[in-house]
Amino acid sequence: MSATSVPAAAAKKERVSLRERLSNPWGRPRFLAITTWVYIAWSLIPVLLAIRFAFNSGRSRTSLQGWSLRWFWQDPTLSVFHDPTLRSALEQSLKLAGLAMLIATPLGVGLALGLQRWRGRGSGTANRLTLLPLVTPELVFAVGLFLLFTTAFSFIGLGTTAQVIGHVTFSVSFVVVIVRGRLQTIGGDIEEAAADLGAPPWEVVRRVLLPLLLPAIAASLLIVFALSIDDFVVSQYLASGADTTTVPMRIYAQARAAPTPALNALATLMLAATLLALVLAYAVFRVLTRGERGGRSALGQLASLEATIDAGGTK
Amino acid sequence: MSGDIRLEELTKIYGDVLAVDAIDLHIPPGEFFTMLGPSGCGKTSTLRLIAGFERPDGGAVILDGLDFLRTPPHKRNVNTVFQSYALFPHRTVEQNVAFGLRYKRVGGDEARRRVADAMELVRLGGMADRRPGQLSGGQQQRVALARALVLEPPVLLLDEPLGALDARLRVDLQVELKRIQEQLAVTFVYVTHDQDEALTMSDRVAVMREGRIEQCATPQELYEEPATAFVANFLGAANLIPVASQPGVRGTELALGSFRLRCEAEGAPHGEAVAMIRPEYVRLEPHGAEGENRLPGMVEEVVYLGFHQDVRVRLATGALVRADVPNDGEAPEYQQGDAVAVHLRARNLRVLAGDGERAVQDAQAAAAPEPAGTA
């Protein structure tokens, strides 16, 4: 009985009309999949084209002329490696990103710990104010900093110091978000438990809190790096001259003058650095939170990490 | 023997809420002491004050004659087992258990031996190298227990340690906790909102309400001789009948409308009072049965509960009495609408002070459902 009914059902399946197949509520969501892939192609193709021209052997940025590494370092005068303006821009970008990363992360960790512990009048307001830089338009932020360094803080003045302070100021909020998310998953009980077992306050931080915060700290370092190296507006406003020009500023300026594929090469290097930072942040976080409660808390943390990366991307 | 705790007028205020209201308490060494109450009754706050996680707004915590008030938690000779376990996820089970030994200046072979003993005690052999994330809830709670017990504290504080476990496991661990407590003769201060846990394990139970201790006694005394309607209802079920009480010939005479009841208890409160009797002590007899403490009524509802039936009888005076009738395998004797006589035996009746309205409010407060996972 059942042996005959199964092939019969299979045969019946063949004759399902196209209309039925499209409106089948149990079928795979083909339309959604197509939309997603079209979107991905649409957003990736310009980037991929730009990268392709970085490897162009000719001078053109519009027509394909074979492959070479000429614009990275082979060209004795015009390549990123040999053109002093491009090279100094790359150095300045890396310098700012490195300094911002090393200053903003400890600052943000401290701020997050403080905000987590501070209960009482004003703590709620302070909490929200810390996140303000995340939503402030960057231009407003940059103009404000510009006025600050040219008037009230004129003893600092414009230049590398001002640029670093600017980058630290807006990226601290990201660190606070990441670290607070982690603190929330850790929970207050763990610190109390450590104290209860006899650990004095400094030991609680050293043996329990810092090891548990390590993933968040690693993620913060790399995200601040990525944010800083991407930044254009703040760097531009707080720059003091040619030696404080960063890669985004150089690309913007030269794209209007005499662009060569060296600009594409420079942009490609930037993209690689940013991607590397983010992939590392993700990987380090995964490795360090491995084995924690079936990865559930790590996943929750990752969600907030990814949200932060998204916010950084649209900034 | 150490592990003697004394609380003197211990007080804690959060904002404008009096969480712990001048509690006086003495817990002798080696006692399994339980603080029982609904959420927000101050039981966890009291425990946190003993552990030192909170500073009291008044009063004292005295351990073995020493005032603890100015001692920070890491220097207190008490250890805590948390409801959330609070294990260190980045350390193995063994490292978790060994965590506190360093601060006791115990190292090397001695530390290894004590860790192994503690793990043996909670039956965690073979788990040493696992991470907390790889263990089940019950196993994690055992690690938390071993981590505290390895330090050999005179007092162990347990904050709803079984709250996050499923019912079966809870029963198993109750037995085990009691075994460990008896074996080590450590003072246990146990916080729970679960009356079964309190009755099963404790030497003494303090029923708490709104920051105060409502009654503190042995489980049997709490169940048989509750001091208030709140206690009567928090531990088990209770029939509460408003009566007028006066000294009688043998015991106390209770007036219920035109009926008279005798209660054997001497020295019961007089005047407006509440008569209390457990449903399992109520006897149902055929209509017209003669004798003292028998009241006529009509069966209003019969609820079948498997091993027993909950028979609700409306008395002629208007009061509702619940009777637990054990299921003996015979056909149900009582049906809705049957006229019966309710026998409230004199030796099972208790008289609680207070008027009927207050008693009903208290009963409702005790029966209020506990929000899951809070204390």
Task: Kindly summarize this structure in a few lines.
Chain A is mostly helical. Chain A has helices at residues 2-14, 18-22, 30-54, 70-74, 84-117, 123-130, 132-135, 138-150, 160-186, 188-196, 201-230, 233-238, 247-255, 261-288, 296-314.
Structure explained in plain terms:
The complex is a heterodimer of chains A (315) and B (375). Chain A is mainly alpha-helical. Chain A is built from 15 helices and no strands. Mean pLDDT of chain A is 81; it is low at 293-304 and 306-315. In chain B, 24% of the residues lie in helices and 34% in strands. Chain B has helices at residues 43-51, 93-98, 108-121, 137-149, 167-184, 195-201, 219-224, 229-234, 356-367, and strands at residues 5-14, 17-27, 32-36, 58-63, 66-67, 78-81, 155-159, 187-192, 204-209, 212-217, 239-247, 252-256, 259-263, 271-277, 282-286, 294-304, 308-315, 320-326, 339-344, 350-353. Chain B has a 6-stranded mixed beta sheet, with helices on both faces. In chain B, a hairpin with a 4-residue loop joins β11 and β12 (252-256). Chain B is elongated and about 80 Å long. Chain B starts with a strand and ends in an 8-residue tail after the last helix. The A-B interface holds A 187, 189-190, 192-201, 203, 207-208, 211-212, 291-295, 297 and B 51, 53, 72-76, 78-80, 82, 84, 86-90, 99-100, 102-104, 131-134, 147-148, 151.
Compute the average pLDDT of chain B: 88
The tally of helices of chain A reads 15
How much is the radius of gyration of chain B in Å?
A: 24 Å
- The radius of gyration computed from the alpha-carbon positions of chain A, rounded to a whole number of angstroms, is 26 Å
Features of the shown structure:
heterodimer, A: 315 residues, mainly alpha, 75% helix, B: 375 residues, alpha+beta, 6-stranded mixed beta sheet, 5-stranded antiparallel beta sheet, 9 helices, 20 strands, 34% strand, disordered C terminus
